[in-house]
Amino acid sequence: MDVKGVKFHYVECGDPKGMIVILLHGFPSCWISWHHQIPTLSKHFRVIAVDLKGFGDSDKPSARKSYRVENLVNELAVFLSMLGVDDQNKCHVIGHDLGALLGWYLVHLWPNCVSKFVAISCPHPNVHWEYLPPSSFFNKNWICFSQLPYLPEMDALQSDLKIINQCYQHLSKNKENDDLSYIDAYKYTFSRTEDWTGAINYFRNLPFYRIEPRSNNDSLNKEEDMLQVPCLLITGSKDVSVQMESFIKSTEFLKTSTVRIIDNASHFPHQEQPKVVNDLLTSYLVRVKVVQKELQPRQNSGGIVGRMKDIVSSTVQYGNTLKDSVQKRNILPITAMTSSCQN
Questions:
Q1: Which residues are the signal sequence here (predicted)?
Q2: Distance (Å, rounded) from C-alpha 338 to C-alpha 131?
Q3: Residue 288 to residues 112, 247, 311: CA-CA distances in angstroms?
Protein backbone atom coordinates (compact mmCIF):
# COMPACT_ATOMS: atom_id res chain seq x y z
CA MET A 1 0.00 0.00 0.00
CA ASP A 2 1.34 3.43 -0.96
CA VAL A 3 1.01 6.07 1.78
CA LYS A 4 2.25 9.56 0.90
CA GLY A 5 4.83 8.04 -1.44
CA VAL A 6 5.94 5.39 1.08
CA LYS A 7 5.20 1.75 0.32
CA PHE A 8 3.94 -0.23 3.30
CA HIS A 9 4.09 -4.01 3.18
CA TYR A 10 1.65 -5.92 5.36
CA VAL A 11 0.18 -9.38 5.81
CA GLU A 12 -3.57 -9.72 6.22
CA CYS A 13 -5.56 -12.60 7.67
CA GLY A 14 -9.13 -13.10 8.86
CA ASP A 15 -12.56 -11.82 7.90
CA PRO A 16 -12.09 -8.87 5.49
CA LYS A 17 -15.24 -7.33 6.98
CA GLY A 18 -14.13 -7.88 10.56
CA MET A 19 -12.87 -5.33 13.04
CA ILE A 20 -9.24 -4.50 12.36
CA VAL A 21 -6.41 -5.44 14.69
CA ILE A 22 -3.12 -3.89 13.62
CA LEU A 23 0.11 -5.47 14.82
CA LEU A 24 3.21 -3.27 15.16
CA HIS A 25 6.47 -5.18 15.55
CA GLY A 26 9.54 -4.20 17.53
CA PHE A 27 13.27 -3.78 16.85
CA PRO A 28 14.96 -5.52 15.17
CA SER A 29 12.07 -7.37 13.59
CA CYS A 30 9.32 -7.40 10.96
CA TRP A 31 5.75 -8.70 10.60
CA ILE A 32 6.89 -12.29 11.14
CA SER A 33 7.36 -11.48 14.83
CA TRP A 34 3.59 -12.08 15.20
CA HIS A 35 3.46 -15.54 13.64
CA HIS A 36 2.04 -17.02 16.86
CA GLN A 37 -0.68 -14.38 17.21
CA ILE A 38 -1.96 -14.06 13.63
CA PRO A 39 -3.77 -17.44 13.44
CA THR A 40 -5.45 -16.96 16.82
CA LEU A 41 -6.52 -13.34 16.39
CA SER A 42 -7.72 -13.91 12.82
CA LYS A 43 -10.49 -16.14 14.20
CA HIS A 44 -12.10 -13.02 15.61
CA PHE A 45 -10.68 -10.06 13.68
CA ARG A 46 -9.26 -8.79 10.43
CA VAL A 47 -5.57 -8.93 11.36
CA ILE A 48 -3.08 -6.58 9.72
CA ALA A 49 0.58 -7.30 10.53
CA VAL A 50 2.55 -4.45 8.99
CA ASP A 51 6.23 -3.93 8.31
CA LEU A 52 6.94 -0.51 9.79
CA LYS A 53 8.64 2.02 7.56
CA GLY A 54 12.33 1.17 7.45
CA PHE A 55 11.74 -2.53 8.15
CA GLY A 56 11.14 -5.70 6.16
CA ASP A 57 9.60 -5.20 2.73
CA SER A 58 8.32 -1.68 3.43
CA ASP A 59 10.22 1.28 2.01
CA LYS A 60 13.42 2.26 3.81
CA PRO A 61 14.17 5.95 3.25
CA SER A 62 17.59 6.79 4.63
CA ALA A 63 16.95 10.38 5.75
CA ARG A 64 16.71 10.78 9.51
CA LYS A 65 13.90 13.34 9.19
CA SER A 66 11.70 10.70 7.57
CA TYR A 67 11.49 9.01 10.98
CA ARG A 68 10.37 11.97 13.04
CA VAL A 69 7.43 11.03 15.24
CA GLU A 70 5.00 13.36 13.49
CA ASN A 71 5.83 11.78 10.12
CA LEU A 72 5.62 8.21 11.41
CA VAL A 73 2.29 8.73 13.18
CA ASN A 74 0.66 10.64 10.33
CA GLU A 75 1.66 7.98 7.83
CA LEU A 76 0.37 5.23 10.10
CA ALA A 77 -2.91 7.13 10.56
CA VAL A 78 -3.32 7.46 6.79
CA PHE A 79 -2.48 3.78 6.40
CA LEU A 80 -5.26 2.89 8.84
CA SER A 81 -7.72 5.22 7.14
CA MET A 82 -7.00 3.58 3.78
CA LEU A 83 -7.91 0.28 5.41
CA GLY A 84 -11.17 1.87 6.51
CA VAL A 85 -10.54 2.90 10.10
CA ASP A 86 -12.37 6.03 11.27
CA ASP A 87 -14.35 7.42 14.21
CA GLN A 88 -17.23 5.03 13.58
CA ASN A 89 -15.14 1.98 12.71
CA LYS A 90 -12.32 1.79 15.20
CA CYS A 91 -9.46 -0.66 15.40
CA HIS A 92 -7.44 -2.38 18.09
CA VAL A 93 -3.70 -1.65 18.17
CA ILE A 94 -1.15 -4.15 19.50
CA GLY A 95 2.50 -3.16 19.60
CA HIS A 96 5.68 -4.72 20.87
CA ASP A 97 8.83 -2.86 21.88
CA LEU A 98 9.47 -0.13 19.27
CA GLY A 99 6.11 -0.82 17.64
CA ALA A 100 4.38 -0.30 20.99
CA LEU A 101 6.27 2.97 21.43
CA LEU A 102 4.90 4.14 18.10
CA GLY A 103 1.51 2.84 19.17
CA TRP A 104 1.59 5.04 22.27
CA TYR A 105 1.95 8.14 20.11
CA LEU A 106 -0.76 6.91 17.76
CA VAL A 107 -3.36 6.39 20.48
CA HIS A 108 -2.55 9.74 22.07
CA LEU A 109 -2.82 11.64 18.79
CA TRP A 110 -5.68 9.66 17.21
CA PRO A 111 -7.67 8.27 20.17
CA ASN A 112 -11.01 8.43 18.34
CA CYS A 113 -9.84 5.73 15.93
CA VAL A 114 -8.64 3.20 18.52
CA SER A 115 -10.89 0.97 20.59
CA LYS A 116 -8.20 -0.70 22.74
CA PHE A 117 -4.41 -0.56 22.88
CA VAL A 118 -2.02 -3.32 23.97
CA ALA A 119 1.60 -2.43 24.71
CA ILE A 120 3.96 -5.38 25.06
CA SER A 121 7.36 -4.82 26.69
CA CYS A 122 7.13 -1.05 26.33
CA PRO A 123 6.02 1.53 28.91
CA HIS A 124 4.66 5.01 28.15
CA PRO A 125 7.12 7.18 26.17
CA ASN A 126 7.16 9.84 28.91
CA VAL A 127 8.82 7.36 31.28
CA HIS A 128 10.34 4.78 28.93
CA TRP A 129 13.66 6.47 28.22
CA GLU A 130 14.29 7.57 31.80
CA TYR A 131 13.94 4.00 33.05
CA LEU A 132 16.20 2.14 30.62
CA PRO A 133 18.15 -0.32 32.78
CA PRO A 134 21.92 -0.47 32.26
CA SER A 135 21.59 -4.24 31.77
CA SER A 136 19.61 -3.71 28.56
CA PHE A 137 21.49 -4.25 25.31
CA PHE A 138 19.80 -1.06 24.06
CA ASN A 139 20.64 1.04 27.11
CA LYS A 140 21.39 4.77 27.19
CA ASN A 141 24.96 4.19 26.00
CA TRP A 142 23.63 2.37 22.94
CA ILE A 143 21.10 5.17 22.33
CA CYS A 144 23.97 7.65 22.33
CA PHE A 145 26.00 5.42 20.00
CA SER A 146 23.04 5.19 17.60
CA GLN A 147 23.17 8.97 17.07
CA LEU A 148 26.40 8.59 15.11
CA PRO A 149 26.19 8.29 11.32
CA TYR A 150 27.09 4.98 9.62
CA LEU A 151 28.94 3.38 12.55
CA PRO A 152 25.86 1.80 14.21
CA GLU A 153 24.82 0.22 10.92
CA MET A 154 28.31 -1.16 10.36
CA ASP A 155 28.49 -2.44 13.91
CA ALA A 156 25.14 -4.22 13.58
CA LEU A 157 26.48 -6.30 10.70
CA GLN A 158 29.52 -7.48 12.64
CA SER A 159 29.96 -10.91 14.25
CA ASP A 160 27.20 -12.66 12.35
CA LEU A 161 24.67 -9.90 13.14
CA LYS A 162 25.30 -9.94 16.87
CA ILE A 163 22.24 -7.77 17.57
CA ILE A 164 19.98 -10.48 16.14
CA ASN A 165 21.77 -13.14 18.17
CA GLN A 166 21.49 -11.03 21.31
CA CYS A 167 17.80 -10.21 20.90
CA TYR A 168 16.60 -13.68 19.97
CA GLN A 169 18.41 -15.84 22.49
CA HIS A 170 15.06 -17.36 23.45
CA LEU A 171 14.74 -18.74 19.91
CA SER A 172 18.24 -20.17 19.76
CA LYS A 173 17.58 -22.14 22.96
CA ASN A 174 14.66 -24.03 21.43
CA LYS A 175 16.51 -26.24 18.97
CA GLU A 176 13.80 -28.88 18.86
CA ASN A 177 11.31 -26.70 16.97
CA ASP A 178 11.35 -24.30 14.04
CA ASP A 179 12.52 -21.27 16.03
CA LEU A 180 16.03 -21.43 14.56
CA SER A 181 14.57 -20.87 11.10
CA TYR A 182 13.05 -17.61 12.34
CA ILE A 183 16.50 -16.43 13.41
CA ASP A 184 17.67 -17.07 9.86
CA ALA A 185 14.68 -15.11 8.57
CA TYR A 186 15.55 -12.14 10.79
CA LYS A 187 19.17 -12.26 9.68
CA TYR A 188 18.12 -12.31 6.04
CA THR A 189 15.83 -9.34 6.65
CA PHE A 190 18.72 -7.34 8.17
CA SER A 191 21.53 -8.60 5.95
CA ARG A 192 22.39 -5.25 4.32
CA THR A 193 23.50 -1.86 5.62
CA GLU A 194 20.36 -0.19 4.26
CA ASP A 195 18.27 -2.68 6.24
CA TRP A 196 19.60 -1.10 9.42
CA THR A 197 19.62 2.62 8.56
CA GLY A 198 15.86 3.14 8.68
CA ALA A 199 15.46 0.95 11.74
CA ILE A 200 18.19 2.76 13.70
CA ASN A 201 16.78 6.13 12.61
CA TYR A 202 13.88 5.47 15.00
CA PHE A 203 16.38 5.64 17.86
CA ARG A 204 17.90 8.79 16.38
CA ASN A 205 14.54 10.53 16.89
CA LEU A 206 12.10 8.87 19.29
CA PRO A 207 14.13 9.21 22.53
CA PHE A 208 13.73 12.98 22.27
CA TYR A 209 9.93 13.13 21.97
CA ARG A 210 7.37 13.31 24.77
CA ILE A 211 3.61 13.71 25.01
CA GLU A 212 2.65 17.22 26.12
CA PRO A 213 -0.31 17.91 28.40
CA ARG A 214 -3.23 19.93 27.03
CA SER A 215 -3.32 21.98 30.21
CA ASN A 216 -0.59 24.33 31.34
CA ASN A 217 0.81 22.05 34.02
CA ASP A 218 3.91 19.99 33.32
CA SER A 219 2.39 16.55 33.77
CA LEU A 220 -0.39 14.39 32.37
CA ASN A 221 -1.94 13.65 35.72
CA LYS A 222 -5.06 15.72 35.23
CA GLU A 223 -8.04 13.71 34.05
CA GLU A 224 -8.46 15.74 30.85
CA ASP A 225 -4.88 14.89 29.89
CA MET A 226 -5.13 11.17 30.63
CA LEU A 227 -5.44 8.78 27.72
CA GLN A 228 -9.06 7.67 27.44
CA VAL A 229 -8.37 4.57 25.32
CA PRO A 230 -8.35 1.40 27.47
CA CYS A 231 -4.82 0.00 27.65
CA LEU A 232 -3.37 -3.40 28.46
CA LEU A 233 0.32 -3.43 29.42
CA ILE A 234 2.13 -6.76 29.14
CA THR A 235 5.64 -7.46 30.37
CA GLY A 236 7.75 -10.55 30.94
CA SER A 237 8.79 -11.43 34.47
CA LYS A 238 12.41 -11.90 33.33
CA ASP A 239 12.68 -8.87 31.03
CA VAL A 240 15.97 -7.06 31.68
CA SER A 241 15.31 -4.46 28.97
CA VAL A 242 12.65 -2.58 30.93
CA GLN A 243 11.94 -1.86 34.57
CA MET A 244 8.69 -2.89 36.23
CA GLU A 245 8.48 0.53 37.84
CA SER A 246 8.13 2.12 34.40
CA PHE A 247 4.96 0.11 33.74
CA ILE A 248 3.49 1.13 37.06
CA LYS A 249 4.25 4.79 36.37
CA SER A 250 2.75 4.43 32.89
CA THR A 251 -0.66 3.83 34.44
CA GLU A 252 -0.57 7.40 35.80
CA PHE A 253 -1.16 8.61 32.23
CA LEU A 254 -4.09 6.27 31.61
CA LYS A 255 -7.71 6.49 32.65
CA THR A 256 -8.29 2.75 32.21
CA SER A 257 -5.38 0.33 32.37
CA THR A 258 -4.47 -3.25 33.15
CA VAL A 259 -0.95 -4.59 33.78
CA ARG A 260 -0.17 -8.27 33.26
CA ILE A 261 3.13 -10.00 34.02
CA ILE A 262 3.94 -13.11 31.98
CA ASP A 263 5.89 -15.70 33.96
CA ASN A 264 9.01 -17.30 32.46
CA ALA A 265 9.24 -14.69 29.71
CA SER A 266 11.75 -11.96 28.95
CA HIS A 267 11.42 -9.20 26.32
CA PHE A 268 9.41 -11.30 23.82
CA PRO A 269 6.54 -12.78 25.86
CA HIS A 270 4.37 -13.15 22.74
CA GLN A 271 7.00 -15.53 21.35
CA GLU A 272 8.20 -17.15 24.57
CA GLN A 273 4.73 -17.82 26.04
CA PRO A 274 2.46 -17.53 22.99
CA LYS A 275 -0.51 -19.46 24.37
CA VAL A 276 -0.62 -17.41 27.56
CA VAL A 277 -0.35 -14.15 25.64
CA ASN A 278 -2.88 -15.26 22.99
CA ASP A 279 -5.41 -16.18 25.66
CA LEU A 280 -4.85 -12.84 27.33
CA LEU A 281 -5.24 -10.91 24.08
CA THR A 282 -8.38 -12.78 23.13
CA SER A 283 -10.06 -12.27 26.49
CA TYR A 284 -9.15 -8.57 26.46
CA LEU A 285 -10.01 -7.68 22.87
CA VAL A 286 -12.97 -9.84 21.93
CA ARG A 287 -16.13 -7.97 22.76
CA VAL A 288 -18.96 -9.89 24.30
CA LYS A 289 -22.61 -9.56 23.49
CA VAL A 290 -24.80 -9.75 26.55
CA VAL A 291 -27.93 -11.86 26.10
CA GLN A 292 -30.71 -12.52 28.58
CA LYS A 293 -31.66 -16.14 29.07
CA GLU A 294 -34.58 -17.47 31.05
CA LEU A 295 -33.80 -20.06 33.68
CA GLN A 296 -36.09 -22.75 35.01
CA PRO A 297 -37.13 -22.15 38.65
CA ARG A 298 -35.08 -24.12 41.16
CA GLN A 299 -36.85 -27.26 42.38
CA ASN A 300 -35.99 -26.61 46.01
CA SER A 301 -36.99 -22.97 46.00
CA GLY A 302 -40.48 -23.52 47.29
CA GLY A 303 -41.87 -21.26 44.55
CA ILE A 304 -40.28 -18.18 43.12
CA VAL A 305 -42.15 -15.07 42.13
CA GLY A 306 -41.06 -13.81 38.75
CA ARG A 307 -38.43 -15.21 36.47
CA MET A 308 -34.72 -15.47 36.97
CA LYS A 309 -32.39 -14.14 34.32
CA ASP A 310 -28.95 -15.26 33.46
CA ILE A 311 -26.20 -13.61 31.52
CA VAL A 312 -24.42 -15.50 28.80
CA SER A 313 -21.62 -14.21 26.63
CA SER A 314 -21.11 -14.55 22.96
CA THR A 315 -17.88 -13.73 21.20
CA VAL A 316 -19.46 -11.76 18.41
CA GLN A 317 -19.48 -8.11 17.51
CA TYR A 318 -17.30 -7.60 14.50
CA GLY A 319 -16.69 -4.34 12.71
CA ASN A 320 -18.06 -3.35 9.34
CA THR A 321 -16.44 -2.33 6.11
CA LEU A 322 -14.59 0.86 6.96
CA LYS A 323 -14.21 4.24 5.31
CA ASP A 324 -11.40 6.74 4.93
CA SER A 325 -11.48 9.59 7.43
CA VAL A 326 -8.42 11.37 8.83
CA GLN A 327 -9.61 14.95 9.12
CA LYS A 328 -10.84 16.24 12.45
CA ARG A 329 -9.11 14.78 15.48
CA ASN A 330 -8.71 15.82 19.10
CA ILE A 331 -4.93 15.97 19.03
CA LEU A 332 -2.73 15.94 22.09
CA PRO A 333 0.55 17.58 21.01
CA ILE A 334 3.92 15.93 21.09
CA THR A 335 7.11 17.82 21.70
CA ALA A 336 10.65 17.25 20.54
CA MET A 337 13.09 17.54 23.40
CA THR A 338 16.59 18.88 23.06
CA SER A 339 18.97 16.58 24.82
CA SER A 340 22.57 15.50 24.76
CA CYS A 341 23.79 11.96 25.30
CA GLN A 342 26.20 11.34 28.09
CA ASN A 343 27.93 8.14 29.04
A1: none
A2: 18
A3: 21, 28, 11
